[in-house]
Amino acid sequence: MGKTLVEKIWDAHVVKSQEGFPDILYIDTHLIHEVTSPQAFDGLRKRGLPVFRPQQTIATADHNVPTLDQHLPIKEELSRYQVDMLTKNCKEFGVELYGLGHPYQGIVHVIGPELGITQPGKTMVCGDSHTSTHGAFGAIAFGIGTSQVEQVFATQCLLQQKPKTMKIEVNGELGKGVGAKDIILYIISKISAAGGTGYFVEYAGSAIRSLSMEGRMTICNMSIEMGARGGLIAPDQTTFDYVKGREFAPAGEEWDKALAYWQTLYSDEDAQFDSVLTFDAADIQPMITYGTNPGMGIGITQEIPTTSSQPENEQPSFQKALDYMGFHDGEAVLGKPVDYVFIGSCTNSRIEDLRQVAAFVQGKKKADNVEVWIVPGSKQVEAQAKLEGIDKVFEAAGFMLREPGCSACLGMNEDKIPAGKYCVSTSNRNFEGRQGPNARTMLVSPLTAAAAAVTGRIVDVRELV
After folding, report:
1. CATH number assigned to the domain comprising residue 175
2. Which NCBIfam families match (predicted)?
3. For a Cys staple, 461 with which of 97, 331, 345, 451, CB 3.0–4.6 Å?
4. Residue 412's pLDDT is what?
5. Measured between alpha carbons, how far is 209 from 212 in angstroms, rounded to an integer?
């Protein structure tokens, strides 16, 4: 019997396998940041251990960093402490750090791909849920906890149970105004925020193949939001063209050798998945969330479901979510006013996202009732946006291109949404308090976010493009 792509990569990285025990899985690349690494470094220090393979470890500061005045000391004490500790730890243990001011600094899941660190066939981990982003390149990539960060530091291996496999196919052509973010929000709305639990997902089908690498990263990024261990897409010419020539990509003979291997990375025709789901791209419209988990999503023209339509055991939590959001059963979201628009995060802060937003807002003005934060995913994205004059387009529209960081995706830095305010956001999570205490988050695509920024309300972007 043939193998799935997940099985091929997994099996190639198993150091030892014994029935009844987790596999010992070798990790090719370990990405770290300032939030989940301090305790792991302390663990090494207490045990007198070095980082086993520091050349396979890359660090950056992203979660706690301000997105204005990065040349000044960080104001928030805890944030400043964590960033300072990362600098100290990386220096002590010999780990490469792309800290504030470095031209490669940025959100960890943005810099890995753009620097050519992320490559097909790799195993990659990071102490961050959205590590599955790197699966867009045909890599096994997943988030780990702090104790596991220490385990990888010390051994370059992890104890892991082999996951079940799921294939999600999306076939057909996407309609106008519909993009990768809408695809993944649609899938999660159909299978729920727990529908992928226990699985590693492979995304396939003509609609997935038609996406750019940036779009594929958006899809894989949110795999965790359906409960999946991770998600990936088989590499193809789009993948190879993106990787070639990047800073840490193979070159010359090494490129030829790598490419020959990468071209074997696909699921065999007779491979058996534990679950297969199929969707039609034509059924997907611009999506928006109305509740407090990413599975609570609807098409932009649809109405919020009723509490009574939910399974009986889920009705109390469903009603609690609507109460938190200030919404009601059967209500339409179209036309609702918004207070903030956040365009950024490891889901949608790449140059393609900023280009799409700039093209839409060119010649338009920000609505008076909205505050707009546009946060590039990295210093390289920021530099490219300025090179292309995108910052000037935003400035003319009344927006501001800030400096790189995780920003308002999570209330861990200075960019917080005030209590009770509605934020239309291109990020990945809409939990209670995610963007700040009692902030209300509605997840959307960059295009839908841009439309809200210029109209001041929730609109169907298809009517404006």
Report:
1. 3.30.499.10
2. leuC, PRK05478.1, PRK12466.1
3. 451
4. 87
5. 8
Write down the residue that tokens 């910052």 correspond to. 391
Q: Verify that 269 and 356 share a domain, yes or no.
A: no
188: helix, coil or strand? helix
pLDDT tens digit sequence for 186-211? 999 999 999 999 999 999 999 999 99
Angle between helices 38-47 and 146-155 (to 10 degrees): 50
Please report the pLDDT score of residue 127 as a whole number: 97
Domain presence at residue 281: no
Per DSSP, the residues of 284-320 read ---EEE-SSSTT-EEETTSBPPPGGGS-GGGHHHHHH
Question: pTM score, two decimals?
Answer: 0.97
pLDDT by residue (tens digit) across 206-259?
999 999 999 999 999 999 999 999 999 999 999 999 999 999 999 999 999 999
State whether 160 and 243 are in the same domain.
yes
Residue that is written with structure tokens 């890995």 in the block: 112
220 a known binding residue? Answer: no
Q: Are residues 268 and 291 in the same domain?
A: no
What residues have CB less than 8 Å from 463, skipping those under 6 apart? none
Between CA 340 and CA 450, with CA 215 as vertex, the angle to 5 degrees is 25
307-345 burial, b if ≥16 CB within 10 A, otherwise e? Answer: beeeeeeeeeebeebbeebebeeeeebeebebbbbbbbb
Query: Residue 145 half-sphere exposure, CB side, CA atoms within 13 Å?
Result: 3
Which parts of the chain register pLDDT below 70? none
Are 356 and 239 contained in the same domain?
no
Residue 144 Cα distances to 132, 141, 149, angstroms: 11, 10, 7
Same domain, 221 and 341: no
Q: Is 126 marked as a binding-site residue?
A: no
From CA 256, how far away is CA 290, in angstroms rounded? 48
Half-sphere exposure of 268 (CA within 13 A, CB side): 10
Q: Are residues 326 and 228 in the same domain?
A: no
Element (H, E) at 159: strand 157-160
> Domain range holding 302?
287-463
Q: Counting every residue, how long is the chain?
A: 465
What is the structure's pLDDT at 1?
86
pLDDT at residue number 411: 85
Give the per-residue pLDDT at 203.
98
Token pair for 69: 């005045």
Q: What type of residue sits at position 21?
A: F
Torsion of CA 368, 464, 219, 411, to 10 degrees: 10
Is 282 part of any domain?
Answer: no
pLDDT of residue 353: 98
43 within some domain: yes
